[in-house]
Specification:
Elements: H1 19-57, H2 60-83, H3 85-94, H4 96-111, H5 113-129, H6 138-165, H7 178-182, H8 187-209, H9 223-250, H10 259-283, H11 294-319, H12 321-349, H13 354-362, H14 378-384, H15 389-397, H16 417-432, H17 435-444
Helix pairs in contact: 1-2, 1-3, 1-6, 1-8, 1-11, 2-5, 3-4, 4-6, 5-6, 6-8, 8-9, 9-10, 10-11, 13-16, 14-16, 15-16
Length: 445
């Protein structure tokens, strides 16, 4: 860790739940969220592939297959959005300073996630519900999906860039927007690994979803044929992940790599190998037997996903551990200094009469006797409300805006009518004294 890296103060608030529970929530909810993100994006890509294949070959069965896949995409999209709330909230709570620092540094790109997602979702629905209406305009119909897929591809890249930037506080001072953060180590390899995962997960899902029974509109694409087709999608994507995976691992900065984290990753690799072995056997099973080993494949590959998610969490914890310690030390020092300053302020405040202490504490930041600060001076206020402290109280309880040159006063009803009356009486009294006496009072503020 570069000790010249910025170390902002933490937020000294108690966690709303035990830390172990929040960490567990991040891992569990993230796995569920990313599962449906994979199905949404992978389904959209395969929809585009098969619709284009049907258009080029002039074979309606592939167009029908694309339409069936498209029907799953919007459902998975909704689940991905709902299940994304949990890990995002847990991340906000556990890694507030890191998460929001990365948000600020990626700026416009991070803020654009919501409009990008909303636009992509609208395009997915347009594409889905215009299939028959645009049957004679296939290029235009596919163009809608191309734009939607492009937007969906941009969103995880922004998110991965942001999450990765959390781990590099020593680079925060040199980041100049999204693109400079996107070229930090591990972003692009991890993004490539994610894209392959979308195909692996979606292929496995569609092998089950479409391979359960015969579909008349798919003609000779029988359930065994569909199973083999999508098993191969999963197989090829998984094998490609074995090529990209080492790049992901070795581009991780070494400070976060531990034996425990490496052991979890290797356990995931072992499960992936077992899953691929069962997948290979499934592809070459007879039509009658194909599908019997499906849940073994699912179990091993899901185990791989769990190990990778846990390994990533262990890496994140270790990677920021030393920086977090420094940040906690700085926060503790800040709290000590803040308390000392508050104690000094209280001692000084005790020198004044009770009504002046109350005024200084509640109103002194904005009002002075002869000086215009944020609001008008007490001399001006006393001239308006002479012998009418209740007018000041009424105004403070529900202020309006009289003058364009002054900001509107915030509502002070939380102070209470009794204290506001005391303050109002002091304002009129202090604002009505002679100039020399006012000067003396002013020096005591």
């Amino acid at each position: 860790m570069d000790y010249a890296s910025p170390s902002p103060r933490d937020i000294p608030l108690a966690l709303p739940a035990p830390e172990w529970l929040l960490q567990g929530a991040i891992v569990v909810f993230f796995i569920l969220h990313i599962l449906f993100v994979n199905l949404m994006l992978g389904g959209a890509i395969l929809t585009l592939y098969f619709e284009r294949l049907g258009y080029r070959r002039g074979e309606p069965k592939f167009d029908a297959l694309a339409r069936r896949i498209a029907a799953t995409v919007t459902v998975n999209k909704s689940l991905a959005v709902v299940l994304g709330v949990g890990p995002l909230l847990a991340m906000n709570v556990l890694y507030s300073v890191y998460f929001y620092s990365a948000n600020a540094l990626t700026g416009t790109a991070w803020v654009s996630i919501v409009p990008l997602a909303a636009s992509a979702f609208l395009l997915l629905y347009w594409h889905k519900f215009s299939w028959e209406k645009m049957a004679g305009e296939k290029r235009r119909h596919m163009a809608i999906l191309i734009v939607a897929v492009a937007l969906l591809l941009a969103i995880p890249l922004i998110f991965l860039t942001n999450i990765n930037l959390m781990l590099f506080p020593e680079r925060w001072t040199s980041i100049a927007g999204f693109f400079s953060a996107a070229i930090l180590p591990n972003v692009l390899p991890r993004y490539a690994h994610f894209l392959l995962a979308t195909q692996a997960v979606t292929g496995l899902f569609l092998a089950w979803h479409l391979g359960r029974r015969q579909h008349a509109d798919l003609e000779d694409l029988t359930p065994p044929t569909l199973r083999r087709m999508f098993y191969r999608v999963t197989l090829y994507a998984s094998l490609a992940q074995f090529l990209v995976g080492p790049t992901v691992y070795f581009t991780l900065p070494s400070r976060g790599v531990t034996n425990q984290m490496t052991g979890v990753i290797l356990a995931g690799v072992t499960m992936a190998l077992a899953g691929i072995l069962f997948l290979w056997q499934e592809i070459y099973e007879t039509d009658e037997r194909i599908g019997r080993g499906y849940w073994f494949v699912v179990a091993f590959l899901f185990g791989t996903v769990c190990c990778m998610a846990l390994g990533r969490h262990l890496y994140r914890e270790e990677s920021i551990a030393s920086h977090r310690t420094r940040m906690q030390e700085r926060t503790a020092k800040f709290e000590v200094l803040s308390q000392a300053a508050f104690d000094d302020y209280q001692r000084e405040l005790a020198k004044f009469p009770p009504e002046q202490r109350l005024f200084n504490f509640r109103c002194g930041a904005c009002h002075a006797i002869d000086t215009v600060r944020v609001g008008p001076s007490l001399r001006e206020i006393a001239g308006i409300y002479k012998d009418k402290p209740e007018g000041i109280v009424a105004w403070a309880m529900s202020p309006g805006k009289k003058r364009p040159s002054f900001p509107q006063m915030p509502k002070m009803s939380h102070v209470g009518e009794r204290d506001l009356t005391t303050i109002a009486q002091y304002m009129i009294s202090a604002g009505s004294v002679t100039a020399p006496a006012a000067s003396q009072l002013q020096s005591k503020e």
